[in-house]
From TrEMBL:
GO MF annotation, one: oxidoreductase activity
Protein name per the record: Short-chain dehydrogenase
Keyword vocabulary terms for this entry: NADP, Oxidoreductase
Coiled-coil zones: none
Entry keyword NADP: yes
SUPFAM superfamilies cross-referenced by the UniProt entry: NAD(P)-binding Rossmann-fold domains (SSF51735)
Alphabetized Pfam families for the sequence: adh_short
Domain of life per record: Eukaryota
Entry keyword Transmembrane: no
Protein family membership: Belongs to the short-chain dehydrogenases/reductases (SDR) family.
Native species: Aspergillus puulaauensis
Length: 303
């Protein structure tokens, strides 16, 4: 079923994406949903695609399917195990990639957990969405590409969730954390030529809703779009040739997801009110730096 809003034509799809020969990509969450769709587009256009997820059997199946479905592709496909809910394993995953490659042209993180059963924890005891959607990707990004050199969005007094919250609030905080991480990395990476972007792929039924209640799934189906639109959003953010990464960018009409937040040099360059409903606190340099430093402390034993 289509959503309430009609989607405009995506500016970048598998139909007009340029040849990606020689490019190396990592797509996390690549066994289903947006990650899988994105991997198919990249491989079809001759990119070298590394798939990353927890289930290596599924990763092998996806790799086999790509080769079968696109026999004329000159690209390559490989994969490595990645469990973002266990920090002790992530360096092993990063090292597996770094042992094979000396360059990485784009890394796409796909949300790993959405509304799990209340009380769900990571291996290290973090609330599952905070750990899997924020701390785990933060560690992987730092190991791979970090440069050398709700209100409030993040409740720094409750990051251990000693005061429990509604699952949707916790999910919202983990997504706000992604924006803060993107802003902080952008400031650090600007001199190394690395762009750090946060994007909203929109609403679609994918494997992400596997723990969601049935009644909520009915609502999501009513407002959902084609999953391909979310993959196109990631494609646009990562590979659109004329993208101005210094400015906010939206394709589609207001209220119609997906929306891409451009976060480079500092949060101050992003006009409040145009991104994430005008939540200026999501672009606050002090908050993003504080969250970055908190993440640094959490991953210190695993770097």
């Amino acid at each position: 079923m289509g959503g309430f809003w009609s989607s405009p034509a995506p500016p970048l799809t598998e139909a007009n994406l340029q040849d990606q020969t020689g490019k190396v990509f990592i797509v996390t969450g690549a066994t289903s949903g947006y990650g899988l769709l994105l991997a198919r587009i990249l491989y079809r256009r001759n990119g070298k695609v590394y798939l990353a997820a927890r289930d290596t059997a599924k990763l092998q199946q996806v790799a086999d399917d790509l080769k079968h479905d696109f026999p004329n592709s000159a690209g390559e496909v490989d994969f490595f195990h990645l469990d973002l809910s266990d920090l002790s394993t992530i360096k092993i995953s990063a090292d597996a990639f770094l042992a094979k490659e000396s360059q990485l042209h784009a890394l796409w993180h796909n949300a790993g957990v959405m509304i799990p059963p209340q009380g769900s924890k990571t291996k290290q005891g973090y609330e599952l969405q905070l750990g899997t959607n924020n701390i785990g990707p933060f560690l992987l990004t730092k190991l791979l590409v970090a440069p050398r050199a709700p209100t409030p969005a993040i409740d720094f007094t409750n990051l251990d969730y000693h005061n429990d919250e509604w699952a949707w609030v916790k999910y919202g905080r983990s997504k706000a954390g992604n924006v803060l991480q993107a802003a902080a990395l952008a400031r650090r990476a600007k001199d190394d030529g690395i762009a750090s972007l946060a994007l909203d792929p929109g609403v679609a039924i994918t494997g992400l809703q596997r723990t969601m209640s049935g009644w909520l799934l009915v609502i999501i189906r009513l407002i959902s779009q084609r999953p391909e639109i979310g993959a196109y959003t990631q494609l646009y953010a990562g590979l659109q040739p004329d993208l101005d990464v210094q400015q906010p960018e939206t394709w589609g009409k207001p209220g119609n997801l997906p929306r891409i937040a451009r976060l480079l040099t500092s949060a101050a360059v992003v006009p409040p009110g145009k991104l994430v409903g005008g939540r200026a606190d999501l672009f606050d340099g002090e908050a993003s730096e504080k969250f970055w430093q908190w993440n640094e402390e959490q991953i210190k034993p695993y770097v």
